[in-house]
Amino acid sequence: MKNFEDLNQYSLWKNNENDIIPTDTEVAEKWAIGELETNSFNLSGQTRINIILVLKGAKPGSQFNVIPQKAPAVKKLLETMGLYYNFFEDKEYDFDKEENVPTVTFMISKDKKILDRITETDKINRQKFSKKDYLKNLDAAGKEEQRKSEIQSGIDFGYPATAVEAFSNGEKKMEWVDLPEEIRDSEIGKINRKFPLFSLSKNNWKEEIEVFKRWISIVKYTSPEIYKQILESKE
Question: Largest CB tally within 10 Å, which of 16, 41, 48, 184?
Fold first, then answer.
């Protein structure tokens, strides 16, 4: 296994009593998962799920926000996991405070080329399509460009193509309450209600929910503790 080459990594691992330093990436990953479990970063359950899925190669990339004060610690976490990341400062609307608050947006991937692509796609989308009432001001060609860009972003983040296309086309989604009772009442159903990760389409929800099941099984295998936390979460 690959040893750490960056001396700055060592500061993450020092134990006050024993100065224990890991020698391989497997130990690094276990430490990082432990950090996600304690969650001093105040990351949402959905964000922690996505980080694990990117780490395990189940999703090519993901995007999430953190408060600025937590950004340095999140960078160290991602570096320890061996994930590539880009980040930029932004603002998001806080409905509780009824105001825009500072945030840091992270884009992550295990593949540098994928990271560059999803970052560039996101940048273009923000420049072209993020202004207020932008759709009202787009002509037919512009709306089609926006639709294709939205689909590409969804696929880059690993969502089922059928679900992405249905969402982008404005089709009705399969609501949680409309799922069969045996799914709604299962652990997977309960998790899907709290953290849907992506919208299920009316026509292909059976195949799409299998993707969701695989993703959650990866989370459960990687961290039974996080699986338990999201299952019991009130989010």
Answer: 48
